[in-house]
Amino acid sequence: MTEILTSAQMRAIEAAAIASGGITGLDLMERAGQGVVEAVFAEWPALAAAPHRAVVLCGPGNNGGDGFVVARLLKGWGWEVEVFLYGNPERLPPDARVNYERWCEVGAVGDWPSAVARFSFPSFDADYPDTDLVVDALFGIGLTRPLPDEVMEVAFALNDREQPRSGWIVAVDIPSGLSAETGRACSDGDPDRALYCDLTVTFHRPKLGHYLADGPEFCQKLVVCDIGLPAPGAAAREKQVERDE
Ligand SMILES: NC(=O)C1=CN([C@@H]2O[C@H](COP(=O)(O)OP(=O)(O)OC[C@H]3O[C@@H](n4cnc5c(N)ncnc54)[C@H](O)[C@@H]3O)[C@@H](O)[C@H]2O)[C@@H](O)CC1
Ligand SMILES: [K+]
To answer: For the YjeF N-terminal domain, which residue ranges apply (predicted)?
Structure first.
């Protein structure tokens, strides 16, 4: 049976693994980004066959940090990558900040008004070449309140599937706007206040929100990626082995 976690359980597992000294948050973030790229290439082999164009939307927390890793890795594959940050780079949490800096060594970061302009009609339609992949690294399991209006401006454009110029959309951990606990958009009643994705790549174990309520519709295909965290009960088993020796 698949084990499904709450956000709090996932945080506790990550914190325990980091505290044990076996792995750093930065390692986990790198593996998360690698897992997203691998899942994208496995899902759409044509994207792995030659460099394409991506837009990476990064948020103000560690989900955004995963996005900077994905951007750097895709650039390493020869892709053309545009990155936009919703938030203040000075206030990124430490691991996300490191990956922001690493990205800045190889590419530019647009601010959020530029992202809104990028996806506004009619410029989205007329002024920009097709994008093959949008990476949603805005909010993950840390989303605590409804998506801000300026983020929804971009999400509405991407959710409009009559305008297929954005290519495939991959969600890092969970589609932005969706509660990892309830599977509903964090909103005061608008069920569409989240980003509809084609592929969702989550880490270690699925979360409740991937399966409950509207979760499956927002996530579409769900891939669970191993980022090197211990399996449930592993710590207890290790202690048992120590006692037996
Ligand atoms: N070491 C780690 O903690 C790891 C975290 N990972 C990634 O980190 C994510 C969790 O990171 P965080 O806990 O930083 O959370 P998020 O990155 O999901 O978002 C938290 C940030 O968004 C802000 N926020 C929340 N709701 C908002 C709203 N409606 N409007 C504006 N700002 C809002 C919070 O104040 C905080 O700054 C996971 O989903 C996963 O993608 C992975 O890299 C694996 C390792
Ligand atoms: K996300």
So the answer is: 10-235
Domains belonging to the chain, first-starting first, are: 25-229 (3.40.50.10260)
Is 141 annotated for ligand binding?
yes
Q: Is the dihedral of CA 136, 40, 213, 160 positive or negative?
A: positive
Q: Quote the pLDDT of residue 1.
A: 67
| SS3 state at 225 | strand
Pocket flag, ligand 1, residue 29 (CB < 6 Å): yes
For 7-17, give one letter per residue: b (16+ CB within 10 A) or e. bebbeebbeeb
Angle ∠(171,2,141) on CA atoms, nearest 5: 35
CA-nearest of 37, 55, 46 to 158 is 55
Establish whether 178 is an annotated binding residue.
no
Complex ipTM value: 0.96
Give, in degrees to the nearest 5, the angle at Cα 219 between 136 and 116: 30
